[in-house]
């Protein structure tokens, strides 16, 4: 069981089972929402229990995706594709240990110009 929360604690969550290896998304939407790049793990919706779900505000950022954040403190927590049975959860919201390691970088063609990726992990342009 892995647990986590938003900054103020109004939203807590639990994930049953191991966390899949996370990825780091460098697309412009993730960078603008998170303030840097977005690191998350994709877990089956059925494996996630959200307490305080009434405090989650969903923003539909495209026809295919919505993003969830805490309406009290603004913590960005979830990225949810509408046509798949998974939810991406922000790695920074988990309590340690997560027992994972970053697996890859995606949308690196859109990454910010103020940082370099030098960790040797795979990089996908899109």
Feature tags:
single chain; 126 residues; mainly beta; 1 helix; 6% helix; CENP-V/GFA
Would you kindly provide a written description of the structure presented here, covering whatever features stand out?
Strand 6 (56-60) and strand 7 form a beta hairpin. The strands form 2 sheets. Strands 6-7-8-9-4-3-10 form a 7-stranded mixed beta sheet. A 3-stranded antiparallel beta sheet has the order 1-2-5, with no helix packed on it. It is globular and about 35 Å long. It has one domain: Metal Binding Protein, Guanine Nucleotide Exchange Factor, Chain A. The chain has one helix at 28-34, and strands at 2-5, 12-15, 23-25, 38-44, 48-51, 56-60, 65-70, 76-81, 86-90, 104-106. With 126 residues, the protein is mainly beta. The chain has 1 helix and 10 strands. One of its GO terms (molecular function) is carbon-sulfur lyase activity. Keywords: Lyase, Metal-binding, Zinc. Residues 2-116 form the CENP-V/GFA domain. Belongs to the Gfa family. Pfam families: GFA.
CATH topology: Metal Binding Protein, Guanine Nucleotide Exchange Factor, Chain A
- Silhouette: globular
Count of discrete alpha- or pi-helical segments spanning 4 or more residues: 1
**How is the main sheet built?**
7 strands, mixed
- Total beta strands: 10
* Helix-strand category: mainly beta
Could you give a quick summary of the protein structure above?
The protein is built from 1 helix and 10 strands, in the order βββαβββββββ.
């Amino acid at each position: 069981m892995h647990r986590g929360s938003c900054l103020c604690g109004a939203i807590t969550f639990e994930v049953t089972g191991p966390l899949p290896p996370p990825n780091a998304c460098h697309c412009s939407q993730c960078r603008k929402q998170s303030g840097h790049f977005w690191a998350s793990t994709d877990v089956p919706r059925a494996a996630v229990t959200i307490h305080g779900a009434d405090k989650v505000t969903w923003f539909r950022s495209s026809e295919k995706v919505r993003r969830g954040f805490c309406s009290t403190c603004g913590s960005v927590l979830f990225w949810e594709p509408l046509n798949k049975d998974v939810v991406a959860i922000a790695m920074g919201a988990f309590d340690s240990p997560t027992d994972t390691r970053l697996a890859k970088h995606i949308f690196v063609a859109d990454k910010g110009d103020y940082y370099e990726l030098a960790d040797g992990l795979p990089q996908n342009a899109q």
